[in-house]
Design a protein that fits this description.
It catalyses: ATP + protein L-histidine = ADP + protein N-phospho-L-histidine. This is histidine kinase. The protein has 713 residues and is α+β, with helices and mostly antiparallel strands. It has 20 helices and 19 strands. The strands form 5 sheets. A 6-stranded mixed sheet has the order 13-15-16-18-17-19. The chain has a 5-stranded antiparallel sheet with strand order 8-7-11-10-9, sandwiched between helices. Strands 1-6-5-2 form a 4-stranded antiparallel sheet, with helices on both faces.
């Protein structure tokens, strides 16, 4: 936008912001906008019409040109058939032909020579490349004529045929030499697999010659080789692209292909010094791959623009079929695209020039017509700007009639300014009095606020101390009650379960898993009681630690916590890849992980997710231990609460005690591990526990060592 504003300023002598702020320019802009939109729409409609309809017309024309080229090739074969029919019916041919003794195994050599001389003369006069008389036996022995011999049925037959160089030489040595074409690598075409094409594409006619008895012992075999033949393509070009059918500098071309090789064409070469024998024609060049795929491989016509040797042409291609119905080549008709694009761009430039002229002329007329109207408005604007800057001036009388709306507006504005000046004086006096009263009242409120803040801070500190003392007292009583009331029943339950297992004997195997689960849970209850005592008197408990695999412990946690997870209707995602061993106390670690899982389940709404991950802890390519992550999509923890979640008795849940995370932190700290907490409101929370291969001495750790807080990322 800054670049546009700079260009606009240099062109029109006024900035874009100033133009937007001035009424005259806005009116000019609004007046010219419909004109500009109309003219631009006209240009785009014209461009669209040219692109769509002119393009369609070009493709329709080239398609018609292709039809004419195909028809001309058919006419070549019909003309050959007619020429051979004319020769066979001529008196001199019949006279020479009757000299042959069909029943004699040794034909009359003189008669054959006379016929050959006659056929050579006819070949030259008719423009054929070969013309010969061949017996039925020789035709049957020729693999190329055998199919035509089968299809003649006493009538002439014509068709296209691709012959190897040796078979061309069998017909005429000159044909074999004429068929050789140097293949040239061409843009947009695949690299050629050979350097010379020796095959020949011929149009061939086989006509039976019957004797007086109606028997056929001889055939006329004639035709022409398309390789390097310029007569046919030039004839079709002159027929299709006669003078006046194309724009100036546009070139109409026709080409015959053998497979993807141009064997007969009038597509010109700009420069081709290495092949002077090709007479400045693109003989031996290749068709583009996309045309080859559609026409020769898929057998469909191509009606579109295509790259022809060295330029883009509006092109039409159709497959050529030999006498067996096999695709052997293509016929092409097209004309160069550049002159049409030149005319098209020239039309757009002319139309754009007219648009600019009309636009400037319209703008000038609108500006001159609106100038007399805009001068009073501009004067009013100047007065308003001066009043805003503090000057005490008025618009006064404009050189307009009293009935003019601008004159009435100026009078009303002057009256409004007078009233505004009087009211400003009154407001100023009232404001001065109010300022004095506000200053007195503010000073009094500041003194009272400072005193109130001191009292509130003292009250808050006292309240926190009382609450902490009450909780510590309650904790002592609670621990004593739990130790007395729970340890004895758990001992009774454990003893009875052992007795039950002993009394059932072998029958205990059916419920052995349930009995073991009850024993384990009783042990867990005992461990929890020990943990509470351990929190209040941590020095009295030295829990044994052993080297453990973490994955089985996490699996057990998921089994024990499945009730809370299912109750909250959350999805559990496990990613357990840890393989390293770490020194931990298994029951205490179970207690920590269960506490984290239950907290995560309570933090997640229905249909949320919880991730449990265990992986090897590796830093600087050195294995330190194992890390365990519990991540949820819950409500998250605020920054204010995040730094207090490990304080004893601090909780945000109504039914919480505030001891779970405190006990968990104490257990991990005694193992020398680390706890990291990352949380973002309304995103979720991640608890990461780091456990080392060897447990560290917790006496060397500070009260909050290994504890880290942050945002969840």
């Amino acid at each position: 936008m800054a670049m546009f504003s700079g260009v606009f300023t240099r062109v029109f002598g006024i900035s874009w912001q100033q133009m937007q702020s001035k009424v005259r320019y806005r009116i000019l802009f609004l007046t010219l906008l419909p004109i500009v939109l109309t003219l631009i729409s006209l240009v785009f409609i014209t461009i669209y019409w040219n692109v769509i309809y002119t393009g369609k017309q070009l493709f329709m024309k080239v398609n018609a040109d292709l039809v004419v080229a195909q028809s001309s090739l058919s006419q070549v074969q019909k003309r050959q058939q007619h020429q051979l029919s004319t020769i066979s019916g001529s008196w001199d041919f019949q006279h020479a032909f009757q000299l042959l003794n069909h029943n004699d195994p040794q034909p009359n050599e003189a008669a054959i020579n006379a016929l050959n001389i006659l056929l050579i003369q006819k070949q030259q006069s008719l423009g054929l490349d070969f013309l010969r008389l061949i017996s039925v036996a020789d035709a049957a022995a020729d693999p190329d004529l055998r199919l035509m011999l089968y299809q003649t049925q006493q009538q002439a037959i014509s068709g296209l045929m691709v012959l190897p160089n040796a078979r061309l030489a069998h017909i005429n040595v000159g044909l074999a030499e004429q068929a050789k074409i140097d293949i040239v690598a061409t843009k947009y075409a695949s690299e050629p697999v050979q350097s010379i094409e020796t095959r020949g594409l011929i149009s061939r006619t086989l006509m039976p010659i019957a004797d007086l008895s109606g028997n056929v012992f001889w055939y006329l075999d004639g035709g022409m080789l398309f390789n390097r033949n310029t007569v046919i393509v030039d004839h079709i070009r002159d027929l299709v692209y006669a003078p006046g059918t194309l724009p100036e500098r546009s070139i109409g071309t026709v080409t015959l292909f053998l497979d993807n090789i141009r064997v007969s064409t009038n597509v010109p070469l700009e420069q081709f010094p290495s092949h002077p024998n090709q007479q400045n024609r693109a003989i031996g060049t290749l068709v583009s791959d996309e045309v080859y795929q559609q026409v020769l491989v898929e057998g469909q016509n191509w009606i579109n623009r295509a790259f022809v040797f060295n330029d883009w042409y509006i092109s039409a291609y159709a497959p050529l079929y030999d006498i067996r119905g096999k695709r052997v080549g293509m016929v092409y008709a097209g004309f160069s695209e550049a002159p049409f694009l030149h005319n098209y761009l020239l039309n757009i430039i002319e139309l754009g020039t007219i648009l600019v002229i009309v636009l400037f002329l319209s703008g000038f007329l609108v500006y001159r017509g609106a100038n007399s109207l805009l001068q009073p408005i501009e004067y009013i604007h100047q007065v308003v700007t001066a009043v805003q800057s503090g000057r005490n001036i008025r618009i006064g009388k404009l050189e307009l009639t009293k009935e003019n709306e601008l004159a009435q507006l100026a009078q009303q504005f002057d009256s409004m300014l007078d009233q505004l000046q009087r009211r400003n004086a009154q407001i100023q006096a009232a404001a001065e009095q109010l300022e004095v009263k506000v200053e007195q009242r503010t000073r009094s409120l500041q003194d009272k606020t400072e005193e109130l803040e001191r009292n509130v801070a003292l009250l808050h500190a006292t309240r926190q101390q009382l609450v902490t003392n009450e909780k510590l007292t309650a904790l002592g009583e609670l621990i004593a009650g739990i130790a007395h009331e729970i340890n004895n029943p758990t001992a009774v339950i454990l003893g009875n379960m052992e007795l039950l297992k002993y009394e059932l004997g072998d029958g205990a195997k059916a419920v052995e898993e349930e009995i073991e689960l009850v024993i384990q849970q009783v042990g867990r209850i005992t461990t929890i009681i020990r943990s509470l005592l351990q929190y209040s008197r941590p020095g009295e408990f030295n829990a044994p630690i052993e080297s453990q695999a973490i994955t089985p412990i996490v699996e057990e946690v998921l089994l024990l916590a499945r009730h809370s997870i299912e109750q909250q209707q959350v999805t559990l995602v496990k990613e357990l890849t840890a393989t390293a061993m770490v020194e931990v106390n298994r029951p205490q670690l179970l207690q920590v992980l269960i506490n984290l899982m239950v907290n995560a389940a309570h933090a997640v709404n229905n249909d949320g997710r919880i991730w449990v991950r265990a992986y090897d802890w590796i830093e600087n390519e050195q294995s330190l231990g194992v890390k365990i992550e519990v991540e949820d999509e819950g409500i998250g923890i605020s920054k204010e609460d995040l730094s207090r979640i490990f304080d004893p008795f601090y909780t945000t849940r109504k039914d919480g005690t505030g001891l779970g995370l405190s006990l968990s932190y104490g257990i991990i700290k005694r193992l020398g591990g680390t706890i990291e907490v990352k949380s973002t409101l309304n995103v979720g929370t991640v608890f990461t526990i780091g456990l080392y291969h060897k447990a560290k001495d917790d006496q060397q750790l500070g009260p909050y060592d290994g504890l880290h807080f942050g945002d969840k990322t």
